[in-house]
Amino acid sequence: MQPEALRDFTELVQRHADQWYRAALRIVLDHGSAQDCVQDASIKMWSNWNSYRGDAQRSTWAYRFVVNEALSAKRRSRPVATTDRSELAGIPDSPYFEAEAVLTALYAAVAQLPEQQRLVFQFRYFDELPYADIAHILGTSQGGLKANYHHAVAKIKKTMVGLNLDLHSES
Amino acid sequence: MNLSTEPHKRRDGIHVPDDFAAQLAERATRAAVAATHRRTRMLQLTWTATAIAAVFAGVLLSVRPNSAPAVNTTMQLSVQEAWTALEQGEVTLTDDELFELAELHGINSL
Question: ipTM value of the model?
Answer without folding.
Answer: 0.80
